[in-house]
Amino acid sequence: DLVALGTIADLSPLLGSNRILVKHGIDVLRKTERIGLKILIREAGLDLGEIDTYEIGFILAPRLNAMGRIHHAISSLRLLCTRDFRQAVELSKKLNLKNTERQDLTAGSYEQARRMVLGKVDFPKALIIASQEWHEGIIGLVAGRLVEEFYRPAIVLSLGEKVSKGSVRSIPGFNIIQSLREFEEYFIDLGGHPAAAGFSIETVKIEEFKKDFLQTVEKKIGADLLCPFLDIDAEIELHAINQNFYNRLSKLSPFGMGNPEPLFLARNLEVLESRLVGKEKSHLKLKVKDKNSNPFEAIGFGLGLKEEILQLIQKKEPLDCVFKISENTWQEQKILQLKMIDIKAS
């Protein structure tokens, strides 16, 4: 169970032996006797028997990691090791509170970072922004969100009086650690991989590094690299999607880093119903069909914030949709659902 948890939380590729360990580790996790994990799963509102890579990667791991990001990871370790019920409850509540604090810190810092980016006169091919107010434990999350929104490499720095910490996220096709190693003389320490990196740097050297790095990036990154794309696995008609198809698809799991869920494209879909859902009305709930299919429930996380998609739906014209297929449990019934990733006019 801990092997599966750690492999997914560390974003290790789910290939080869990793995939085997995670697949069997999830089976063990669903039956775990670790009281700390059971309480953490309960506090997160999850069903132990339904735990999969998504629940680990997006719900449990952030809670365990939050302590190390903004406090000390010892509480997470104690939760995983404890055999005492009361201690498990106390530690689980502590992790949930720290995770909420981490979310608030990240949201506030991201909004500041976003305003900095949008306030730039020139829009460079890589983003480098810094602040004394940002906690070094969340700058990687801020960098990741900047890459999602602006689709270019992002370096976010937590400024210190003498030494500053930097966290970096990149886009497909641009090896960030290789590029940063060309400027190794600036760093106190540097580590990472092609998609992400971290470093320490003397604060007085930041401006010089920024100038040199951006000059290099302007030469290395072509306009085509800054165009987001979706790697679609297959085009499909909705009437071909049924429980048997989903069961066969599930044999490719566990999905995650290095082994992503298959991505499908369906054309000329009719939207029968649409509404915004979620606390901030940021998610888009749909009911869609093609000319030969029964209606399918669909959810687009975050798509409710995309004005161009909302306008398309209001026009009531046929749409091309890119999605993943999931199984949703509602009132003890399992229903296939489309997880919308993008929507365009047909």
UniProtKB/TrEMBL annotation:
- The keyword Hydrolase appears for this protein: yes
Q: Where is the RecJ OB domain?
A: 232-342
**Which residues are in the DHHA1 domain?**
129-220
InterPro entries linked: DHH_sf, DHHA1_dom, RecJ_OB, SSDNA_exonuclease_RecJ
As one GO molecular function, the record gives: exonuclease activity
Which superkingdom does the taxonomy of this entry point to? Bacteria
Q: What is this protein called?
A: Single-stranded-DNA-specific exonuclease RecJ
